[in-house]
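Aim 2, interim progress. The first record below pairs a target sequence with its structure tokens.
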Amino acid sequence: MTPAILALNLGLSFAALVALCLSLNRHHAEIFGTKPSGRRVVLLRVLGWGGLVLCLLVAGEAEGWGFGPVQWVGAVSGAGAGLVLLLSYRPRLVAPAGVAAVGLAMTAGLLLHVA
């Protein structure tokens, strides 16, 4: 298990879970002050589920299909725990943290590509 793959999986998982979180009326209104439009809900759900599937594919290809899904479950669980804590104590930071997670995933992906 390489740290770059783990960082990539954590970043993608957290960003995907943030997108799914923001597709819910309650969380979207709590963070942005307005309810999301129907089109935005669909976009956020597609991005969220697509991100989780992409994360699973990355983990499976990088770590092998014997260990990759295990790492994926761990990354999604860790990202979910972090998101729950952030929603509980600092909900306004959820959207910026999701953007930062995408940046982390892109940086880890570039490190993997360069190495």
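The second target in this work package is listed in the same format:
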Amino acid sequence: MSRITRLTKDQVTAEVREKFEQIGAVRGNVPNMFRVYAHRPEILKTMMAHMDAVTNTGTVPVRTKELVATLVSRINSCEY
């Protein structure tokens, strides 16, 4: 099975490195999904905007949204 590599901050452009720093400031680290999307900076940028809209808007607390995402992942046997 082929795999897409997870890029590190040393392997990306300055623009993507800045995005990594933004993600790290909010989450405490840069999750692998963002490191994979870094292969396509234009997709990383739009994905970050989507995640921000889903996570940081509405009336449901962020923690509850994260718990729901974790529960759905477990129910579907989608381990991280």
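Residues 41-55 form the longest helix (15 residues). This observation will shape the mutagenesis plan for the next reporting period.
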